[in-house]
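Model the whole thing, not chain by chain.
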Amino acid sequence: MADIRIDSGSFEELAMPLFAQMYNFAHWLTQDASEAEDLVQETCMKALKGFDSFRQGSNFRAWIYRILRNTFLTSRTGLKTAALSLDDEESGLPEPVASGTPESILMADVDYLKIQDALEALSVQFREVILLSDLEEMSYQEIAETLAIPVGTVMSRLSRARKAMREALTDAKVRSASR
Amino acid sequence: MICDDVRNRLSAYVDSELAASDLADLEAHLHECSGCAADALRRMKMKHMIRGAAARYSPTPEFRIRMERSIRAKKKPSWSSSWLPRLAMAAIAAMLLIASVAVWETRSDRDRALAELTDMHVATLASANPVDVVSTDRHTVKPWFAGKIPFSFNLPELQNSEFSLAGGRVSYLHHSPGAQLLFNLRKHELSVFIFQEQSGGIPFSAADIASTKLAFHMETWSEGGLRYFVIGDAPASDVHALSELMKRAARA
C-alpha cells in the first residue's frame, strides 16, 4: 500500500509551485480576493483527497486546474456565470476571418489597464481560455484536458474569445476618443 | 497561400501550435504580404500584453502559510503510537497558550518573538505530524532542508549523548523560512529553531540569552549569520547541553 505521507509530500511539491498562479487564475474567475482564497483552498483539499486517482507522469497542472475550474463552476459565483453560457455551439473550426479586413487596433494605444478591463468584461468561458493560453502558456492539448473539451473546440473558442477581446478594446478606444 | 487561409492559421502560429509542415509556407507568405505580417505582429503583441496584464493578483504570504499548513495537516499520522493522544495534547497546548497570553502581558518585541517560538514548539508537539522529515539520522534530516530554506546548518553527532533526533520541519518566523528540529531527551521534547539573522528582523542582540517562561527553558544565540533557539520543558541544564552540542556542530 502506498504511504500517504510520501504521497502528501509529493502532492505539496507538485501543488505549491503552482500556488501563486492558481490564486491569480482563481481571482480572475471569481473577481474577488476572498472567494479566490476559498476556491484555491477547496481545490487543493479536493486534489489532495483525490491524489490517488492522479496518474503519475500525466499532466498535474491540467489535472489540478480542471479541479479548480470545476470547483468554481459549482460555486455560487460560478453557477451564476454558467447561466450566461456560450451563445452558440462551436463548430470545432477556427472563426473564419473576413477577407482583406485586418482589425487594425493601434496596439500602441492599448495599455495593461485597458486589457484588464476588457478581460473582466469577457464571459468566463472566453476569459479562462485566453488566460490558459496567453498567461499560463498551456498548449491546446493541455487546455483541452483542463476544460474537458476537444482540441478543435479550444481553437474555435480561443479564436472567438480573442475576437471579443479585440472588439472590447476597440469599443474602449472609441469611448475614450469620444470623451 | 491566400491571405484568408493564412489569417485562419495565425492564432495557431502565435500560440506555437502550427504543424512544422505549415510553418514554412506561412512564414514565406508573411515575408511577402505586409497585411498578414502586420496582423501576425499585432496578435503577438496582444498575446504578450495579455500575459503581462493578466499576471495581476498575488496571494498574501499569510494565505500561503495557511495553505501549506492545511496540506500538511491532511497527512496521515504515523507517530500516533509514540505520542500522547492528540486531544490531550491539544488541550495541554490550548491551556499553555491561554497561560502564555495571561502571563506575558508586557511583552517587548523580543518577548513576542520568544512567545511565538514557544507557541510554535507547543503547537508542533500537539500536531498529529510534528515533523515533516521523520528520521533519527542527521545525514537524512540535514539534506532534506536543501532547497526548502535559504541556508544550511550542521547537526551534532548524538551517539554519546542522551539526546536523539526525531526529525525536522520548515518553520516561519516573521515570514522568514527556517528549520525546526525536534529532539527527544528521556520524556522531554526539545525544539531547535534556526533562522537567518536579519537586521531589523528578529529582535535580538548578538549576545546569548537564556530565559525561562512558564515551564519552558530557552537559549538563543547567533552564529555565522544564523540565529539559533533551543526550547523545551527539559531542565535548563539540558537545554544548555543541547545548545552546546549545536554550537560545537556549527563550528565543526
